[in-house]
Amino acid sequence: MQIVATNWQVYQITHSPFALGLIGFFRIFPIVIFSLIGGVLADAMDRRKIIFIAEFVMMLSSFLLGIITLAGNVPVWTIYLLTAVNAAAFAFDTPARHSLVPNLVPEKELSHAVTLNNTQYQSATIFGPVVTGFLIASTNIGNIYLINTVSFLTVLIAMLHINIKRKETALHLISFKSLKEGFHFVFRHNLIRSGMLLDFFATFFASAATMMPIFATDILKVGPEGLGILYAAPAIGAVAAGIFFSLFPHIPKKGLLLLASAFIFGLATVFFGISNIFLLSLFFLAVTGAADTLSSIIRHTLRQLVTPDHLRGRMNAISMIFFMGGPQLGEVEAGIAAGMFGAPFSVVIGGIGTMAVTAYITLRNKALRNYQ
């Protein structure tokens, strides 16, 4: 809800594609700075406590954004600042949360757990944007932030009821040496390294999410209600893909499926950029969501299976820089390109870039192609 509301609010205040794309910078900069620290802490401390504190900070930033918005005359820099605070907390939350999953389920069930977790998340992103779109049209955006604030309470309560058995790691792990150990593991492992590079470059080029307010307002002319549906469309495709993967978890040649999904993601992005018909645009966005989910499940499961538990926090932190850095920096790039050449051109060129990068990695990386 908050992402949709923030993007719409910034565009309504500035009417600038560059200002809209700049949100991506304030989302990724704190992640680059703090995620590595978050990864080290996730391997050295109680992951539940880290998640609890991080979620509380995100709840507080959402509350402040709501109060400031309801007060009126919102300076755009306050949105950027609170977005950065939220991203900093997210940088600690994500490595701990992703590393917690293997502590909760047996290894043989990890693929199912990852699929279920992804499907549950995508289900929420179907209803969240749609509801947000109608709320934007009917109430003050500040109320949306306050509703989002309340939603964080469910996570905080859940953290209080999770019990895990995990061997505690010595506190000497909180050091530069432990951080170096994480980098050494990730970049020496060919499959993890290749998956992260694909993650970064594919999403860097094909990041169209921040441009949605421009498409909803100026191209498709569907207003805030249509904006919510546009944001929900990829999640619908993602849920369908998640259900498919849960029914057929043992698909052979997962490496080829991963690469094919990334290529289709880029191709569907191109068609979305070309389309000026609302229903067609929704279809192509749903395809991007399905393709992205298939590749994400494979990449995430692969990383968790090959990484020892005492390194998972650092691996997930480094991975987060790539899978978050790609789309967020891509939003800045898309904003600049959209300001110069228009949003459709920016999206189309990005999709072509994604296909080119995927084709290059497919041809150059035999190990990833042959991953089963």
UniProtKB/TrEMBL annotation:
Pfam families: MFS_3 (PF05977). GO terms for molecular function: transmembrane transporter activity. Signal peptide: none annotated. The chain crosses the membrane at residues 18-38, 144-164, 197-216, 228-248, 255-274, 336-363. Keywords: Cell membrane, Membrane, Transmembrane, Transmembrane helix, Transport. InterPro entries: MFS_dom, MFS_trans_sf, TM_effector. This is Major facilitator superfamily. It comes from Candidatus Gottesmanbacteria bacterium GW2011_GWC2_39_8.
